[in-house]
Design the sequence.
């Protein structure tokens, strides 16, 4: 008799596992079980996740080009900003030097001043 009870317990455990289905992903567990988001949002989120995955697979080349362009822009931005600042500094100092005196090397002197060099007269 005890063998029959063990056998039925094993069958019921196997049926419970089939009823449960697959284990939930960690984010579903966190958002819907622990935090308590509404259950009606889960099918929508899963549907959008599937659509995004399909869209990403179809447009992988374009997404990689956009990613490389963004990385290039982030890399080049400080260089452009520094050059812009340096050009403004040179223009301002060359105007100041040209208005005060009639020196022909005003741009050269302004560049030296803007780069932090010493001006020796």
Sequence:
């Amino acid at each position: 008799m005890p063998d029959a009870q063990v056998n039925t317990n094993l069958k019921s455990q196997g049926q419970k596992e089939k009823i449960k289905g697959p284990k939930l992903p960690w984010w579903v567990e966190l958002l819907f079980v622990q935090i308590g988001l509404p259950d009606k949002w889960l099918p929508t989120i899963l549907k959008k996740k599937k659509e995004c995955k399909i869209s990403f697979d179809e447009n992988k080349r374009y997404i990689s080009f956009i990613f490389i362009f963004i990385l290039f822009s982030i890399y080049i931005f400080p260089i452009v900003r520094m050059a812009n600042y340096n050009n403004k500094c040179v223009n301002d100092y060359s105007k100041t030097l040209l208005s005060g005196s009639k020196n022909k090397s005003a741009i050269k002197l302004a560049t030296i001043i803007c780069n932090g060099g010493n001006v020796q007269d």
About this structure: The chain has a mean pLDDT of 80.
